[in-house]
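Dear colleagues,

I hope this message finds you well. In preparation for our joint manuscript, I am sending the DUF300-domain-containing protein (Amorphochlora amoebiformis) sequence together with its predicted structure, so that both groups work from identical material. I would be grateful if you could confirm receipt.
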Amino acid sequence: VDAMSSEASARVALVCVMFAVLLTLCQIRLQIMWNSNPKMRKHVIRILLMVPIYAVQSYIALLLKDSFVYFDALRECYEAVVIYSFVLLLVGYLGGERHLVYVLELKPAEYVKHPFPFNYCVGDRVRLGKDYFQFTKIGALQYVVLKPLTAIASFILSATGTLGETDPFRFDRGYLYIVTINSISQALAIYCLLLFYTVMRTELQPLDFVSKAIVLKTVIFFTYWQSITFRLIALTNIIPLPRSAENYDTMSRFIDLILCVEMAGFAIAQWVAWGKGSEFFNPDEKVCEPYGASVWAALNPKDLWEDAKDAVETGEVKRLLNSRDQRQNVDLVDL
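The corresponding structure tokens are as follows:
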């Protein structure tokens, strides 16, 4: 009997999924009780829901054959929402965009230099202040835009039989290009978060940014590369595997089983990193929002769409590109 599709494996996955979901729902309840800032609470709940959403979709994909492409695409869309919500959470915690720009302008350093290889992609440096804030914000926003687009592309290519997930090194298939685009987009998003932290380290210390960021990045980026690595192992036979693992769909279901088990551990890690939300507690404010309304507000991406739309309509992207060109011209004059 195939161990990866056996009833015992499904039961183990179900237990882990139920544990992850219940623990997260309990933590969300604590956040509603202690986190008295509605905007911050919405972002935190949205981030916490990532683990149960991952767990449930992995369990369903484990049971349904040939479904991993569709569930992976849906999961990746929610990843983008979580990343951008984390950025907005940090901005809100630091007092909002205007106050954050003001604090950045008061920093002793005038510029932040980009290391290799980002200095070849986004310029040598960025000025602290509005340019810096726009760069980090748009760096996360591009991930929000590209992830759904590549997910839609995966849907279309899979339906037409041209995705090529079982032969990822073929240049006439879309899988290689989608993975490459997602990887570059992820790297830029991670870099922008790290760049943001290096400058605002002191201000973010009460929030315990490091533990929260580590859990978030591990859930999103580690599981992403773990899935790709396992599938490449199954296709290239780098490591001797049982005969049943040579089937690509079987390996995908094995990955979903591993994810179900891992989500139980990630739920515990989230509990430790995010706690009950006491860092957002204000004794002068009372939380009167029902549980269902809080969760629904977190699942509604309207605020993210409006923020992204505002960034485009107000010309933030265009101003950032123009400021980069101006810096390059100044550097040429200095030479």
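For the figure legend, we might mention the following. The longest strand covers residues 111-113. Residues 87 and 200 are 13 Å apart (CA to CA).

With kind regards,
E.M.
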